[in-house]
Amino acid sequence: MDWQDELDELRRREALAQKLGGEDKIERQHNGGRLTVRERINEILDPGSFQEIGGLAGAYSYDDEGNLTSHSPTNCVMGRGMVDGRAVVISGDDFTVRGGSADATIKEKAQYPEVMANELRLPIIRLIEGSGGGGSVKTIETKGRANLPGGYGSSSGFNLLAENMATVPVVGLGLGSVAGLGAARLAASHYSVLVKDIGAMFVAGPPVVKHIGEDLDKQELGGHAIQTAAGGVDHAAESEEDAFECARRFLSYLPPSIHQLPPRGEQVDDVNRQDEKLDSIVPKNTRKVYRMRKIIDALVDQDSFFEMGKMFGRSIITGLARLDGWPVMLMASDPHFYGGAWTSDACDKIIRFVDMAETFHLPVIYLADCPGFLVGGEAERTGTIRHGVRAMTAINQSTVPWCTILVRNSFGVAGGAHRPVGRYSVRYAWYTARWGSLPLEGGIEAAYRADLDTADDPEAKLQEIEERLNRLRSPYRTAEVFWIEDIIEPHRTRPLLCDFANLAAPLRTPGPVSFGMRP
Question: pLDDT tens digits for 419-441?
């Protein structure tokens, strides 16, 4: 029996799928400085590794004799592939077909990669552009009815997105204008990126927002500068190729799922490397700041720090790094912003950071320089204490190995939240560190008001009290009663951190944790 007709039909339909929304739509995509979905998949995956699923799905029309007369593919291209030799699931929106709206979406196909990633326990990369299968005002006419959000006939599959946040690494790349459900899919990621000047994310786009009196273009409404500062996305990439490289690097630190442990990288940096410049990097004048990122780079494996959320909650630095090849989550104070004090945004950033560490069984390093919570009107208007208590709870609910280096300040409630209490953790203090219930500056006048009011020379009396208290608050006094485990020279820190990473490695246990990470 000759199957040539059937084979020809298969090749014909495969060729139709490769045409996406048509040559004119592809040209428009390129003229806008954007790749097509198939070009994106080929760029981000290892060459030749893409195994497409559902490529033949779409809208087909036939004549009375059953002959195919027209074809429009779905606006989702998805399947499996490899990134640096590791298996992943990938799903891409095809903006050339109805701008990614629901009119050209087969719901089952759009949700399939989420189910596949979850049940195969593989990371998922979402290439998002448009509404990501969300609604369009034309949907009412094409469907003949209005969707009820959350109704049985219009499920967005958000339960799958939430489940994957607690199960597998999720990367979202915003490669154009992303709105509605597409924006939700981008936000529901462990690591999210917008491409500068091309990508934008919003709940609703400029035409809709204009009806409430705000006349803003895409970048003014939800461009990379807006969304990175608001914490809507983690990073702004210079180009699509840069975004793909960021995704590849992020995934290199993580396990395929919570059911495995993060892989150890190459051991290419001397664990005993010591940088004596660290001994003088913290100014003795407490009013002067220093560059925390220089400290980070000096301590972790060379070029291994991968920062996340740089422009949001800026008094806290967060990211991934390696120590003797072992991946760790690293958090550090940044005295250049509010002196390192915890703001409401910084607290939200800490919660997300700790949740990710807990979800993927990553040990935590905290380089602490925290003078406490931000104080003043801004702090009260933004509910800093409520956000702060949530951050402290996240830290104390964590079970992963934890190591803290007290670099300078540790004051007040937030300063005390530098490690989980009630369980063992590793802690060292640099000889540059200082701590207490609150800084002496500004507190002496209140505590010793009576002494100052009766003194013949209040300024001399103030200086006398300050000198006396400074002697008493020496970190060595604290070490005498074992309230601090050890005080070290800063240049000794890297060997100790690498030792911690090697101690922590066998203590990690794969599997679900008591709570899943939320976006």
Answer: 999 999 999 999 999 988 666 56
Contact 372, 414 (CB under 8 A): yes
Other beta carbons within 10 angstroms of residue 152's beta carbon come to 6
What is the distance between the terminal CA atoms of the chain, rounded to a whole angstrom?
56
pTM: 0.91
Superfamily of domain 4-252: 2-enoyl-CoA Hydratase; Chain A, domain 1 (3.90.226.10)
Distance CA 358, CA 329 (A): 10
Amino acid at 94: D
Percentage above 90 pLDDT, the chain: 68
| 3-state per-residue secondary structure call for 500-513 | HHHHHHHHCCCCCC
DSSP 411-435: EHHHHH-SS-SSS--EEEEETT-EE
- Whether 442 and 317 have beta carbons less than 8 Å apart is answered as no
Please work out, in degrees rounded to the nearest 5, the angle formed at the alpha carbon of residue 412 by the alpha carbons of 408 and 413. 120
327 closest CA partner among 398, 394, 250: 250
Tell which CATH classification among 1.10.10.10, 1.20.58.340, 3.40.50.150, 3.90.226.10 matches the domain 276-437+474-507: 3.90.226.10
